[in-house]
Amino acid sequence: MSVSDLFKPLTLLHGPAMRNRFMMAPLTNQQSEHDGTASEFDQLWIEQLAKSGYALIQTCAATVEAGGIAFERQLGIHSDDHLPGLRRMASSIREGGGLSAVQLHHAGHRADPLLGGIPSPASSDTLPGINAITTEAVERIRDSFITAAKRAQLAGFDGISVHGAFGWILSEFMSPDLNNRKDKYGGSLENRARFTIEVIKGIRRSCGPDFQIGWRLSIERYGLRMEELREITGEIFDQELIDYLDLALWDSAQIVREGKYKGKTMLSVFTELPRKGVRLGAAGKIYSARRAGELLDEGCDFVLIARAGILQRDFPLQVMANPLYDSPKPPVPAEYLRKGGLSERFISSLRGWQTFVKPGSP
């Protein structure tokens, strides 16, 4: 395929089609108010993205419960008080011609007590002195994901993305290292995946046939097993439970180093699965038009732009204008980001990434 194929539309199982193959990845930016309300900085960020040519824009991770918070100034969707700001964000994206999704998030055992978070581990031996959450608490959090999705729909978003990556609660429950429960949410792979499946199915029942559901999955760290995740993903594809899989890789070209799939790219382990009408995209060091085009050749239906979209907000428009476009590479001076329109709150968050803002950059 050529780079021009990135600008072909892509139908989804539910709701409108994507106008091209570029999706904006959900990016933690810590710009919101302390109560989770979308700030003027959040709105400016979304307004910039809305004018940048993406087919679908995901918000940063939004808390489905106040106790599920992981980051200071994290966006919230756990209260109706958040609706006005969310409506404005959805409206900006729609006016720019793109589709919109809220990423739904609960930090699980990594919820931060200093921010009002309530650590909610799957197992009693994950955190010293903190017992595993009860079956009833799991079901409550499940219902909070579903309620938050309905809230996103009321705010005017085209869909949501369920955050099942990076050891957050759904990923945690999937991990045999972090989940040693004896109830229906622990033990077998089917039981460990039950939390995720119930969230997804509950959102579909609550939000109806025109609402789009994405699922973000990572396969590295936190005791996750690639073979197990491949099996569950295959079942989700076969049942067409989601509209798209957002495969969160640290590097989209990464090679499996051990086990059954040693020598293959991590991406290929999932692109080789029959996916019926479900679409698959990947994130991970996509800095150039060429790499984005290569990912379509490697079996992706779309690409997720993350770091390159921070460095150059309108990455899709740059690629459209120049099929040889190559993004700047981090780290960059903070002043470069300021000139690009990022808020000081966002820049402060990026300093924690170690490799994004040039050390010592004022």
TrEMBL record:
Residue ranges of every copy of the NADH:flavin oxidoreductase/NADH oxidase N-terminal domain listed in the record: 5-319
Protein name per the record: NADH:flavin oxidoreductase/NADH oxidase
Molecular functions per Gene Ontology: FMN binding; oxidoreductase activity
SUPFAM superfamilies registered for this protein in UniProt: FMN-linked oxidoreductases
The entry's keywords: Flavoprotein, Oxidoreductase
Superkingdom: Bacteria
Organism: Chitinophaga pinensis (strain ATCC 43595 / DSM 2588 / LMG 13176 / NBRC 15968 / NCIMB 11800 / UQM 2034)
CDD domains per UniProt: OYE_like_FMN_family
